[in-house]
């Protein structure tokens, strides 16, 4: 089975969040199951470096305002098709904005171009390569199914995965003329969205199937509370909606072999985590004591609810817990976290920035990881936490609710608890959960048993990979007229 994945990020080459982890892991997880995935990604500066001398497999005299070409290259075990369009992608800064974090004003053009090329490839634009299905990720590539629908590849099935409904790619109606779509596409069942153009909306409408990254979130987004304006459309497509929980790369995230740790360990040698804890304490300027050390590794945005934790922090510290923050994002939230650390010297530490290695050390050294998200499609950091014996303390929402077993009395006595759940969007509930953390942590045998229980969980891609294969297979088997 040949699948073209169209993605704006792919781990380990370019990552701003969890989408990259998933786009990077799926091709490898599916390779042993008879599915060959090629990934089309923009040639950002760091990607350009790896294909310098490769011949183009596809060329455009003009693609959204400039010359472009597609280059096939293998890197890190991934089969990549890099879209080199220097006028769109060869810029300093991040994939979506400049160094200050401000979005590029032509993002609609950049990601329409990526999607258009995906649809062209689906239509046979690369000699000798004809994908049987296209898999798009989030708004940045959501126009691929739309371009397919109105172009040559109208009969090729497509999957639209929602990693984050909060980013929808909404633009003014004025861009429509430049998208190169037929006039009829500017309609309710096309790309039109509240009078403008909606990229994600267009993808959700056009794709043969929609997936999101956990069963609970798949149900949540059919409701106004979580649907962010798209619930009506998603609910209409409920028969084509699938919730497939993310796996993790259990080789990259393995405490027994992880080079980022001061000491490696496994479920039988949990005591060695102390060495990592000491390293975290040093790095964050925290007191050395036996109180629970709880970390945050997160983008600092409204979604992640870190502001709720900041507001409840005085109470959290009073309950005897220490906090270590690693995150970047909203400037105001970054400032609030730094101010908190200054106010609770020794009890709260903060590093503002993105540091993959440090995130591993924190999972390997902290006692728990707190994730107070307002909504969470799946969440990966709680899965890394489970794998590393860093007990997840999570809001009961989306994928967090699907992957953590709360340490209530019944679960504790049955020995099946793996973490702590609390009602989302509530500082009181969060504080109560932290108090429970402090209590259970005070019983080392019980705590260690929870850690081991989490470490036993199967977090690999095995089961979910099988579900993607089944979905791909069923879509490919459908007649085009059933689409
Ligand atoms: N400052 C920092 N330094 C180092 N590493 C950092 C970091 N901040 C975040 N990370 C890392 O980035 C990734 C974030 O993954 P998440 O699943 O938490 O969220 P994200 O919201 O980006 O992804 C969206 O897509 C994913 C994938 O489908 C869904 O799991 C999720 O719910 C959805 O919101 C993790 O690998 C984490 O370790």
Query: What structural class do you assign from the helix and strand content?
Result: alpha/beta
Radius of gyration, whole Å: 23 Å
DSSP helix fraction: 25-40%
Shape: globular
Beta strand count = 18
Please give the CATH architecture of the largest domain: 3-Layer(aba) Sandwich
Biggest sheet, spatial arrangement of strands: 3-4-5-2-1-6-7-11-12
* CATH top level class name of the largest domain: Alpha Beta
Identify the CATH homologous superfamily of the largest domain: Glycogen Phosphorylase B
CATH topology of the largest domain: Rossmann fold
Task: Using brief descriptors, characterize the structure shown.
single chain; 483 residues; alpha/beta; Rossmann fold; 2 domains; nine-stranded mixed β-sheet; six-stranded parallel β-sheet; 18% strand; binds adenosine-5'-diphosphate-glucose; EC 2.4.1.21
């Amino acid at each position: 089975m040949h699948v073209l994945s169209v993605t704006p990020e792919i781990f380990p080459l370019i990552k701003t969040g969890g989408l990259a982890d998933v786009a990077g892991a799926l091709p490898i997880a599916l390779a042993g199951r008879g599915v060959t995935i090629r990934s089309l990604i923009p040639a950002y500066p760091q990607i350009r470096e790896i294909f310098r001398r490769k011949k183009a497999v596809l060329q455009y005299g003009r693609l959204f305002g400039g010359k472009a070409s597609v280059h096939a290259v293998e890197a890190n075990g991934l089969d990549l098709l890099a879209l080199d369009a220097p006028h769109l992608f060869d810029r300093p800064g991040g994939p979506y904005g400049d160094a200050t974090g401000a979005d590029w004003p032509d993002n609609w053009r950049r990601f329409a171009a990526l999607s258009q090329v995906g649809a062209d490839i689906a239509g046979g634009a690369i000699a000798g390569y004809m994908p049987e299905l296209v898999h798009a990720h989030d708004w940045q590539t959501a126009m691929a199914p739309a371009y397919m629908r109105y172009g040559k590849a109208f009969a090729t099935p497509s999957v639209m995965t929602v990693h984050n409904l909060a980013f929808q790619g909404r633009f003014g109606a004025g861009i429509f003329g430049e998208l190169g779509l037929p006039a009829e596409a500017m309609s309710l069942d096309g790309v039109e969205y509240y009078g403008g153009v909606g990229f994600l909306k267009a993808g959700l409408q056009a794709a043969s199937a929609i997936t999101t990254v956990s069963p609970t979130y798949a149900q949540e987004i059919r409701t106004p509370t979580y649907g962010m304006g798209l619930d009506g459309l998603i609910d209409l497509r409920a028969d084509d909606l699938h919730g497939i929980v993310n796996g993790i790369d259990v080789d990259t995230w393995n405490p027994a072999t992880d080079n980022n740790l001061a000491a490696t360990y496994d479920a039988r040698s949990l005591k060695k985590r102390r060495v990592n804890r000491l390293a975290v304490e040093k790095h964050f300027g925290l007191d050395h004591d036996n109180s629970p050390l709880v970390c945050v590794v997160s983008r600092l945005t409204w979604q992640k609810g870190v502001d709720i934790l900041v507001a409840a922090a005085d109470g959290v510290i009073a309950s005897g817990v220490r906090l270590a923050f690693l995150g970047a994002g909203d400037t105001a939230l970054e400032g609030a976290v730094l101010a908190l650390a200054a106010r609770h010297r020794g009890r709260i530490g903060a590093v503002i920035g993105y540091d993959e290695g440090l995130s591993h050390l924190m999972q390997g050294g902290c006692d728990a990881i707190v994730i107070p998200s307002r909504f969470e499609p799946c969440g990966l950091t709680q899965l890394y936490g489970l794998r590393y014996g860093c007990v997840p303390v999570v809001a009961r929402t989306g994928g967090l609710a699907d992957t953590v077993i709360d340490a209530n009395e019944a679960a504790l006595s049955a020995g099946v608890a793996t973490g702590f759940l609390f009602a989302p969007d509530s500082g009181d509930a969060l504080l109560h959960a932290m108090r429970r953390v402090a209590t259970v942590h005070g019983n080392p045998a019980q705590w260690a048993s929870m850690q081991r229980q989490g470490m036993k969980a199967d977090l690999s891609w095995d089961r979910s990979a099988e579900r993607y294969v089944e979905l791909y297979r069923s879509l490919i088997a459908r007649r085009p007229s059933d689409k």
